């Protein structure tokens, strides 16, 4: 069976790891108690313990033994030998064994200077500290979640009151419109039109005023006050105009533009410091507020579930360690102590369970149309089990890819496709599309490796990226997409090569890469629920957010994906070449100069090279606007410097003069230093001068520190790969394209390598703040009254 220490490590909440009971340390105390209970006679013979740092202590102890034996006294000091490893305890609750294979307890003779009672006393002191630690953390989180629950109940009540007011007013307006329409038709020819117009104009003012009064009454019933009501405008009945705001996060372009416009208008015209600006509550804003409150309830329920798991796992750990103590000490001390533990707050309190039941009831009633099954799909989303079929398909497609690629290499050699006679035509036709798919597949492979490493190191990437656990991509899925994509691409390359070597028309055969490109674009936007539709649509949504920067609120997944695009500029350039090749009809005429020398094409190359850096810079600007953190402005400068360096290298490739080479060296050097500093210090959180790990950071997930130093050196080497652009090698077209593809692949590998440490640093930030649940900003903002 699985050892409990490993089971606990696998089940605990990673962000709360430091708040859990330190089971391993308590286990070491139990082992010391076990050693103190095994006295052994020591003769004059010198035992060979092996060389260790405790040799001086052994010498002193041996001299004491000699003196005691010479004086005719029996030595009573026990010899310390490591007899614990490999033994079975025999307890049905401890079938995992008494020791960890990877852990060894190195004892010395000093352990025998203490009696068994001393060790037990130290153990219980340590156990008391652990119980108090768990209790305090549980109380803090319980208080936090209870406060969230009270706030959400108040927000929900406000939402229900506002919906009721709007529904009542909508019914009254509908009845009034029907009545006024009938009245106007029956009196259209009468001479009392003027009197009717006056009465209708008076009535038009009253619904809005009445609606405001109803809303104010509903809000005041829930404790919402108004800012400086003495200086505000008043209604005809002398009541203050409504000042409550519904704070909807500006996540979409229309909401962003509306928020900025409203802010500027209030600053320049309305002077909100002198007059509290009111805001009319409409149906759309109420719907947005309802969606936000629903998400807040889901996060609250998730947090309560985590706290419940925290309580049960710690109780299980205390039970296990006390049973170990009973076995080692031959005493029954655990029962009385366990009774005290069960009376602790983290076990005896039922507030979390009651609040979970209340959340389930409220969510079912107000957000799931009283359908509990539907409510549980939101509150407890089920994770999909790993399928062996996915693993089988990964192996199958990997074998197909290797076989087809070998066949392609043999056919290319036999047909002489890479000779000078047919090299140019074939490379212009095949290289852009197939290398584009190869770079994309490599990136997917690196992402699969990232998912595997994040999972093995317990980095909660689903929480960081805010992915749904039931639809999030797993590492096997990423490998399946990668291998199936490359199998299809290499199969198309083989078919293209076979048909090209036959008597088929070249311009018809050259349509195969374009058909392959259209097929994958169609698969990406396919509305059918096949081939990871949630992941495909999430990808499209993130790309939309990136392209429309800075109008969308920037989430972690948005700027993470934008960073990936900065490493895929060659892929975007290949997509530009392929699009031009097929849209301009070059596959029919084989006139490749159209997509090389055209002015529009050359200018578009700059746009594509700048676009990823521009999008990332705009995201930094938006984050600075939202958070007012100047670090985002400094990060923006990094992408601006990279944009300038990319433009200089592109110009130098077309105008290889001495001046442009100097400009490339200067701009690329500044950009590289800027990027390296940000990689190591900001993104990875390394180079802490006072860290206990030299030039790293205090908290490291990987146990082997040398991996971090190797990663620093590797990232540095791959960051300076731009030096190749100023070293103009005199090589052929095939070798040039191969070198270009090799450098682009190195950048993709560097990005995949960077991804792991970037998310590791983000995860450690969450662990340091014990942040395991997302904080949702609530829509209704309470304000204090000045009057």
UniProtKB/TrEMBL annotation:
Its subcellular locations are: Endomembrane system
The main location is membrane
User: Which family is this sequence assigned to?
Assistant: Belongs to the SYG1 (TC 2.A.94) family.
Q: Species lineage, top-down?
A: Eukaryota, Viridiplantae, Streptophyta, Embryophyta, Tracheophyta
Gene Ontology cellular component?
endomembrane system
Q: Which spans does this entry mark as compositional bias, Low complexity?
A: 180-194
This protein is called Phosphate transporter PHO1
- The regions listed as transmembrane in this protein's record are 390-411, 431-454, 475-499, 511-532, 659-678, 706-727
Keyword RNA-binding among UniProt keywords: no
Which organism is this entry from? Forsythia ovata
Q: Where is this region: Disordered?
A: 71-104, 179-204
Q: Where is the composition biased (Acidic residues)?
A: 89-104
Ranges for domain SPX come to 2-339
Gene Ontology BP terms: phosphate ion transport
Residue ranges of domain EXS in the record: 596-787
